[in-house]
Specification:
Blueprint: E1 6-13, H1 18-30, E2 36-43, E3 71-75, H2 76-79, H3 82-94, E4 99-102, E5 110-114, H4 116-130, E6 136-140, H5 146-161, E7 171-173, H6 178-191, E8 197-200, H7 203-215, E9 225-227, E10 244-246, H8 250-265, E11 275-278, E12 281-283, H9 297-326, H10 331-343, E13 352-357, E14 380-385, E15 390-391, H11 407-414, E16 419-426, E17 429-436, H12 443-481, H13 491-505, E18 511-519, H14 522-529, H15 531-548, E19 554-559, E20 562-568, H16 573-591, E21 599-607, H17 614-637
Parallel strand pairs: 1-2, 1-3, 2-16, 3-4, 4-5, 5-11, 6-7, 6-8, 8-9
Antiparallel strand pairs: 10-12, 13-14, 13-17, 14-15, 16-17, 18-20, 18-21, 19-20
């Protein structure tokens, strides 16, 4: 529970898909009187059963706040990864949280699912009952995939009932996707052994089978009957419209609403676990010789057109934002581009939060080198809250987004609309997440959330890379400009830097002072204590000079133990030398070394007139330094 509301975590993908969007709308409206708040954790694309390598955007499910979550709903067939689903279930059960699996089945979980096998069998059997078929074929999904094998079994059952003997030549594998289906369709055409009916395991494959065969002169359904499965919107918008089975959301949403109501009322326990089964609805259409069924074609087309053209209009802007973010000089400038171009455009979005790992902005290590999880709640900072017009608001130490004291979270939850979370990933490593809170169910906005998230992660990831590269360039420059032992400028860097100072100051009569500092008895330290201690003594002198000179001083190690400082403008050289000597005295008193670090310091002050020569100034300061060094030497001999 959070902010006095029970929270439900809905795990899914592609929230802009019409059926997922309809599910979210139905569920959220159905629980509006329960005092529950819906949080959606979503992927831009499903994982598609690629269990061996899960993409980093699945990290969005790692930020589910199980400590304050009262129920979890997983749209298993939308995520399409049993590995991901099992991980969520394991964490939920560890916190004693009930889980509802939508369109799937796992031990210990409530469930509601379509009977895909029976639904596909209905499509095949109904087609056989209405049309004379002599050469049936199935376009299956992946080999050995459970959904694919179920539909092959249903196909076998029906054709056996109609007197056919099954053999493997009746099966092609289109991997549930376009390109593999196109490849397999071309193989069938090339073989010359053309089926008169192809039963496709999903609608995407049916669309592509129809397209390939029509391009090669085959008529559908006169020469070839084609069926699909799933009820995708597109099958009602092509010619011919394709026979399918509708796996619609009302029944699934109803089960989810009942589940949440039971959670809200405390009427749920492990003893109540059950699985409800829904049969997909058979829809005969033109591809099997039936009259066209439109299923609201005009509304669908308006929906597609609206989304397409609005996306086209924003494409250039999104590209420009990515470029601007990647080339920004610092995080404030980067976030300003977002704030100006996206977050204040109410057409695009009402409210968004960006929660980003603070390590993204470090330059002492390369963020994308690490393989550790980057979504530790205590390493996240809130960088944008567009609704409250905040930019770069760092969270206090120990504060996380899902915190009872977070006023931004409270305001979003009070809206009554779902909170939508995406992970922000780049180079397959998560950087943080984005949270959207629309105050309506406009599906174009839901679709935009995915595009905006992708834009942000591309811009942010590019910025991190560019920022690190700039840091490397600075470090390389420092390696060439700085003395490795003391960190002071070296001889070459000094002349380059001071040349610019001279161009700016020459002829202005601005004062300029040179202080030459030299370590006394370096040879004695080296001979008696070793060169390592000699280096330490030189570094102590350098530290004394850096800490004692004003910030505009150019401090240089010329070589050996020769260190000098050039200070433009008014300064008290005697005071500076006094600070150097006091620093060394304090250091000697606390060092417990067998030797003292003592410096001889000589100074010379002149001005940037037309006759100014840095070489002459250095020589005069050097001469004064040697005069002081001789005095120190005579003093030690007495």
């Amino acid at each position: 529970m959070l902010k006095g509301k029970k929270t439900v975590a809905l795990c899914t993908s592609r929230i802009y898909d019409r059926q997922v969007h309809d599910f979210i709308k139905r569920v959220n409206e159905g629980i509006s009187d329960t005092g529950c708040s819906l949080m959606i954790f979503t992927l831009s694309e499903d994982v598609y059963w690629e269990e061996d390598k899960l993409h980093a955007d699945t990290a969005v499910f790692d930020i589910i706040p199980y400590e304050i979550t009262d129920a979890v709903i997983i749209m298993d067939e939308r995520i399409k990864s049993s590995t991901v689903s099992r991980k969520i279930i394991e964490k939920a059960h560890a916190h004693d949280i009930p889980v509802l699996i939508v369109d799937g089945q796992y031990d210990g979980c409530f469930g509601v699912k379509f009977d895909y096998k029976k639904g596909f069998e209905n499509v095949v059997r109904s087609t056989f009952e209405s049309r004379k078929i002599s050469h049936p074929h199935i376009m299956a999904g992946f080999p050995d995939n459970v959904f694919s094998m179920e539909r092959i079994d249903a196909f076998k059952k029906v054709i056996t009932d109609y007197g056919f003997s099954f053999d493997e030549s009746m099966v092609s594998y289109g991997d549930f996707w376009a390109n593999p289906t196109i490849r397999e369709s071309l193989k069938l055409i090339g073989s010359g052994n053309i089926p008169d009916a192809i039963f496709c395991a999903n609608d995407i494959m049916a669309l592509n089978v129809c397209s390939v065969f029509q391009q090669h002169g085959y008529r559908i359904p006169e020469d070839l009957i084609v069926t699909g499965f799933d009820g995708f919107d597109e099958v009602f918008m092509v010619t011919p419209a394709i026979t399918t089975a509708m796996c619609t959301t009302p029944e699934l949403a109803g089960a989810a609403i009942d589940f949440i109501r039971d959670v809200a009322n405390g009427d749920i326990s492990k003893e109540d676990i059950k699985l409800s089964v829904v049969l997909p609805t058979y829809v005969p259409n033109e591809s099997t010789g039936f009259p066209k069924v439109s299923m609201g074609e005009n509304t669908l087309q308006d929906h597609f057109n609206s989304g397409f053209y609005r996306h086209q209009e924003s494409a250039h802007m999104m590209f420009q934002i990515i470029t601007d973010m990647q080339t920004s000089k610092d995080p404030n400038e980067m976030v300003a581009y977002l704030n100006d171009r996206i977050l204040h455009d109410q057409e695009l979005i009402k409210n968004v939060l960006l929660i980003i790992n603070k390590n993204c902005f470090r330059t002492d290590e390369y963020y994308f080198d690490s393989s550790k999880s980057r979504l530790d709640p205590h390493e996240l900072v809130m960088y944008i809250d567009s609704d409250n017009e905040r930019v770069i608001k760092k969270m206090p130490d120990g504060h996380v987004f899902f915190d009872e004291g977070n006023p931004v979270l409270g305001k979003m939850m009070e809206s009554g609309y779902p909170l939508i979370f995406y992970s922000l990933t780049y180079m397959d490593i998560p950087m943080g997440y984005a949270c959207f809170n629309y105050r309506d169910y406009d599906n174009v906005k839901y679709s935009r959330s995915s595009i905006i998230s992708s834009t942000i992660e591309m811009g942010l990831g590019g910025y991190i890379n560019m920022n690190y590269q700039r840091s490397l360039v600075r470090k390389v420059n420092e390696m060439y400009e700085r003395d490795y032992l003391t960190g002071l400028y070296n001889r070459v860097a000094f002349y380059n830097i001071f040349e610019e100072v001279c161009r700016e100051k020459r002829g202005t009569n601005t004062p300029v002072s040179v202080i030459m500092s030299d370590l006394d008895d370096l040879k004695t330290i080296n001979d008696n204590y070793g060169h390592k201690e000699g280096d330490r003594a030189i570094k102590v002198i350098a530290d004394a000079v850096k800490k004692s000179c004003p910030c505009n001083a150019v401090n240089v190690r010329f070589g050996g133990d020769e260190i000098f400082s050039v200070i433009p403008g008014d300064c008290d050289v005697d005071s500076i030398i006094g600070k150097i000597e006091r620093y060394l005295t304090d250091c000697n008193e606390s060092s417990e070394k067998g030797y003292d670090v003592i410096a001889s310091c000589g100074a010379y002050t002149t001005c940037f007139d037309d006759s100014f020569s840095i070489k002459s100034a250095l020589e005069k300061a050097d001469a004064e330094m040697y005069r002081i060094k001789k005095e120190h030497h005579r003093g030690r001999q007495k």
